[in-house]
């Protein structure tokens, strides 16, 4: 238990340090999407601190499909460490507007070019999603989204919200699913070697020719695909 507490304290300190250094770097080149990639090289140290062995599969698919829209399941605050293990360059994420106010890390998150969305204001949220599509098409920037909208905390893959799929269809860009095995299946942070996490990237799902009428079906199909793959990865680690 002491090891687990110590690990999370050190991981928090790491994020605070990244926030300080990242804010300085981003202030010198504000909203440059490569700021995130540069700092991700440091953030990924978090998996070492937490004792996680990361198994990566098919990550070349992300490189082959940039710029684009990447989606993944959302489990816990430590998702940031796992995501940075495979983050391609010129890739930013979509996060809640409230993240801006997290001391140190929040300022870096905003200045580094990540997209902030006000989920409580649907009108502003739709405007932000249009900006996401524009960023992908015109600024050679990929976007990483977690369509569950909230952390699952061991409840499995939660149903997806439709925003990411509206964005993909509007921009006519493929969706690349990223599946991360469940932490509650493969990890025990009280052990020196906490365990394994498998990250598997699936083939892109095309949206060419789809319209807003197809959003619901696209959302459900992608959800089932990710849910089933995560279950498969979990069975490997059980």
Question: What is the H/E string?
Answer: HHHEHEHEHEHEHEHEH
- Pick out the low-confidence regions: none
Number of strands: 7
Overall pLDDT score? 88
> Based on CA inertia axes, which overall geometry fits?
globular
Q: Give the N-to-C terminal Cα separation.
A: 22 Å
Coarse structural class: alpha/beta
Helical content band: 40-55%
- Main sheet: strands, sense, barrel: 7 strands, mixed
Sheet with the most strands: spatial strand order: 1-7-6-2-5-3-4
Enumerate how many helices there are, as a single number: 10
- Strand percentage: 15-25%
Radius of gyration: 17 Å
Give a quick rundown of the structure:
With 238 residues, the protein is an alpha/beta fold. The protein is built from 10 helices and 7 strands.
């Amino acid at each position: 238990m002491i090891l687990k507490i110590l690990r999370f304290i050190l991981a928090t300190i790491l994020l605070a340090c990244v926030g300080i250094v990242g804010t300085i770097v981003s202030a010198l080149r504000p909203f440059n999407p490569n700021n995130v990639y540069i700092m991700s090289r440091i953030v990924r140290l978090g998996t070492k601190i937490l004792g996680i062995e990361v198994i990566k599969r098919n990550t070349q698919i992300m490189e082959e499909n940039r710029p684009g829209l990447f989606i993944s399941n959302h489990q816990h605050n430590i998702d940031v460490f796992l995501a940075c293990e495979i983050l391609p360059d010129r890739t930013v994420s979509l996060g809640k507007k409230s993240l801006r106010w997290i001391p140190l890390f929040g300022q870096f998150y905003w200045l580094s070019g990540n997209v902030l969305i006000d989920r409580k204001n649907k009108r502003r949220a739709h405007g932000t999603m249009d900006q996401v599509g524009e960023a992908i098409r015109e600024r050679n920037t990929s976007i990483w989204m977690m369509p569950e909208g909230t952390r699952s905390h061991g409840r499995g893959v939660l149903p997806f919200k439709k925003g990411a799929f509206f964005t993909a269809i509007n921009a006519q860009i493929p969706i690349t699913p990223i599946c991360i095995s469940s932490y509650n299946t493969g990890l025990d942070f009280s052990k020196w070697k906490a365990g394994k996490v498998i990250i598997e990237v699936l083939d892109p799902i095309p949206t060419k020719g789809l319209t807003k009428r197809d959003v619901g079906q696209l959302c459900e199909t992608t959800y089932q695909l990710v849910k089933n793959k995560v279950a498969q990865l979990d069975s490997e680690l059980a």
